[in-house]
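Repro:
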Amino acid sequence: MGRRESGLGSIRGSKLGIAILIGILLGCVFAFFFPHGLLLSSSSFSPSLNKPISHSQVGSTLCESSERINMLKSEFVSASEKNAELKRQIRQLTERLQLAEHGKDQAQKQVLVLGEQHKAGHFGTVKGSRTSPTVVPDDSVNPRLSKILEKVSVNKEVIVALANSNVKEMLEVWFTNIKRVGIPNFLVVALDEDIANFCRSNNVPVYKRDPDEGIDSVARTGGNHAVSGLKFRILREFLQLGYSVLLSDVDIVYLQNPFNHLYRDSDVESMTDGHNNMTAYGYNDVFDEPSMGWARYAHTMRIWVYNSGFFYIRPTIPSIELLDRVAGRLSKESAWDQAVFNEELFYPSHPGYDGLHASRRTMDFYLFMNSKVLFKSVRKDAKLSKLKPVIIHVNYHPDKFPRMKAIVEYYVNGKQDALKYFPDGSE
């Protein structure tokens, strides 16, 4: 009997479980088909929808709408504040970008200032940095020139000369002596096809630019000064590619390898038009104005100009800015490129003008010699005439080709009277 009652209880429990399961399933079905309930669903099909809504329902709806509006207003105010903050940040970033583009090298200087800081050392031991960091090379500027420079350059340095058919005779003396000295890293930028073919026939590295009417028109018909002005535009690509350039006119005789005599501690290292220590390296010049009485003497600092026909320029931001400034002015002004070159290098910042922050070095005027020094003093001095310059630039005399040949005769072939037939200046 006990087992029978236990079995009946189990059957009843199973039936009860089944009934509960059926109820849950039916509830799910009704919930799916009648989500708002049976009464509400049936009332939705009845005419009672046309009856007026009670005041309590209207008040409840208005209350909910008011809370919703307040919440939306709060979200709108918050979004407006965030939008204003974003606009302020965008304005600040835009101003910083414009400042960086305008100053060019100012961002770089700020990074250096904000970088590692140093305490000032003991008296007499403090030295500022004069060597600007080089730019990151960008081969996309001129892939064809980049491949040429990879083959020609040595230690990312190269001598570069611009030439057209008007200077073919001097160009031959120029590259003949470069080869004789044993300088491998030099390149001629041919401004016309005749010079390009002439260089190829003499196994001289040459680069002919892609057609550019603005440059080609000057290259075809321009004189020495006009052609000289082109170099500031053309040299920019060399610097962007990461190469240091020893820019050379073709009226120069090479007697030694100039790369063995460079310091490389400045943005620009240039030969001078000066002829002694004072004019080449600077001096205190006193201006006398008697009408000022006690203050009649005014002291000035003077230096003779750098020669824009022979200078070494490193691939730095100040160097590229110098080329841009000079090329920009020459495109607008009828001016001598050497005068503009020196003005941009030396004029200080003053109201209405931002000076160029480029470091400079003057070359030894006995090693990197101009023709005034040679013909007016060196050839007449027994001791100085025994010195062997690195280069001699025939920049002070119009009869360039015969003087170049005479210089070769004197310094290379040992002909002692080769220079004596020329006057000190021009006639």
